[in-house]
Amino acid sequence: MARRGGCSATCGGRRVAGRRARLRQEFDSRASVIVSRLIEGVCRAAGHIRAGRIAFATGTKEWTMDWSDSPEQAAFRQEVRALLETKLPERYKRGEGPGERTWEFDRKSDDPKAREAANAWLAALAERRWVAPQWPAEYGGGGLSSMEQFILNQELARAGAPGVGGSGIGLLGPTLIVHGTEEQKARYLPAILNGETAWAQGYSEPSAGSDLASLQTRAVRDGDEFVINGQKIWTSGAHTADAIFLLARTDPSAPKHRGISFLLVDDIKTPGLSVRPLIDMGDHHYFNETFFEDVRIPARNLVGEENRGWYVGMTLLDFERSNIGGAVGSRRMIAGLIDDLGDAAAGATATHAVRAEIADRYIETEVMFQFSFRIISMQNRGLVPNYEASMSKLFNSEISQRLSLTGTRAFGLHANRWGDGSAASRYSDAYVRAVPATIRGGTSEVQRNVIATRGLGLPRG
Ligand SMILES: Cc1cc2nc3c(=O)[nH]c(=O)nc-3n(C[C@H](O)[C@H](O)[C@H](O)COP(=O)(O)OP(=O)(O)OC[C@H]3O[C@@H](n4cnc5c(N)ncnc54)[C@H](O)[C@@H]3O)c2cc1C
Questions:
Q1: What is the DSSP letter of 100?
Q2: Beta-carbon neighbour count of residue 326 at 10 Å?
Q3: Residue 443 CA: which ligand 1 atom is closest?
Q4: CA of 207, closest atom in ligand 1
C-alpha cells in the first residue's frame, strides 16, 4: 500500500515515527490513569501487598506505588540487555523461527542455521547460568529470585529471544528437585541443563483431560522393570523430544487418584513407543499422539512412591500454572500492534473503535502484570500459588485471544491474508494459535472451578 503524499522516504519515515510516538503517548496516558485507579481499588480491597519494590500500606490515605526497578533490579536488567545485544542470534532478533517451542524445534531442524542459532543461544545463557534461572544454584540453576526471573523473562520477550530447555527446565526439573532421589537428580538435571535431553509431557489421554485421574495407561511391574501399555494425546513437541515423562495406572483396584505412578522414559525411541503427528487448524505440527505397546523401562525410573504419583504430577502442574512470563508476551504484542497502526504501509486502520479496543487490551495487559506480581510476591514469601495461579492462567489465556482478535480487527479484510509474512497475517496466525490457550494446562472452566471452590470457598457443583 502506497504512502499518502509525494514526500521523500526520509520525510515519510519521520512522519510515521511521529505518528507512532503520538499513538503510544495517547495509549500510555489514558491507560496509566485507568490502571492506577484499578490497582488502587484492588489494593484497597486486598490489604497489604508487597512484591519487590511494590508496596502499599493500608490505614493511611497516602498510596505509594513505585513500579520502577530498585538499583539492584536496574543493574540486573542492564546485564540481561547487554547479553541480548551481544549474544542473541540474528535469527531471533529478526523474529524468525516457529513462534512456539522455538528452541526445541530449532535444535532438531533440518536447517543448519536454525540448529546453530539454538545451540549458540543455549551456550550464551549457560555461560550466565540462566538456562534454568529458577532452579537453585546447587543444581546448576541461576538461583534467581522470582523478581529477577520476571525481569529476565521481560527482557527475553522484548527482544524476541526464545527460552531454552523446554519442559525439562520449567516442569520436570523443578519436580525432580522436590520429589526425585539424589541419583535421579544427578542423572537427569545436567542433561536438561546442557540441552542434551528435551522432555515431552505424557499426561492427557483420549478420555482423560480435565479429569486426568481417569487415565487408563497401564504400567505393570515385572521384576526390575515397568511395562507400559496405553495411549497419550496432545503430546506437545514429542516429535522433537528425546524423552517423555508420564502418569500411568499401577494399581487399577485403588481409588482413582491413588494407584497412579509418575514414570520417566529416558529414550522416546524405546521399542514399542511410537509418536504420530496431529496437525492443528493453523497447519502447524505442534502436538502428537503417543502410543505405548509393551514399552519397558527400569523400575528406578519411578519418581516418588509407587501408586502415589498423582501428588508428584500435581506438583508439576503447579509449576506449569504459576508461569510468570505470560504478561510479557502480551505487552510485546500490543507494542507491536501500536507500531503497526502508526505505519500506513502495514494496512491497519486506527478507527475510533479500534483505538478504544486497543486501549482496553492495553489496560488488561497492565492488569495482567499485577497478577504476575501477585504470584511473584507469594513466591518471594515461600508460598505456593494455588487459586492465584489459576486466576493468572485464566486471565492471561483469555487476554491473548482477545488481543490477537483486536489485531485482526485493526487490519480489517487484510486479516484474511495467511502466511505471507505481512503484518496482517501475523495477527491471523496469532489468533489461530491463541485458541488452545484456554484449553492447555487446564481449561478456563477448570480454572474457574478452582477459583470458585479454593479461592471463594463456594461449594462444589
Ligand atoms: C496446544 C495444546 C497443547 C497440549 N499439550 C499437552 C502436552 O504436552 N501433554 C499433555 O499431556 N496434554 C497436553 N494438552 C492437553 C490438555 O492438557 C487438555 O486438552 C486439557 O487438559 C483439556 O482436556 P480435554 O482436551 O480432554 O478436554 P475435556 O476435559 O474433555 O473438556 C471438554 C470441555 O468440558 C469442559 N469441562 C471438563 N470438565 C469440566 C468441569 N469439571 N467443569 C466444567 N467444565 C468442564 C472443559 O472446560 C472443556 O470445555 C495440550 C492441549 C493443547 C490444546
A1: S
A2: 24
A3: 47
A4: 26
